[in-house]
Amino acid sequence: AQGALDAAERGEIKLIFPTRRNLERLALFASFDEAKAQAEAIPVRTIMPQVVEHNGQPWLTILSDAGYPVTAELLENVARG
Length: 81
What we know:
Strand order of the largest sheet: 1-2-3
Strand content: 15-25%
Order of helices and strands: HHHEEE
Shape: flat
Helix content: 25-40%
């Protein structure tokens, strides 16, 4: 997961918002068992991104309590598929 995030930072690949959020979440863990334990500790819910205005700028956001380390990105910076 971290390798893909690093490649995106170098501009080698593009990651759309949901893929980037999932990779950031996976990169938190050193093993499958750690990732699985965290996933099992959080109730399954549908995650629907929303655009919200903050300080006069649009942000793409997801739920803040769904286990993702990053939950918002300035809309103008979001890669699109």
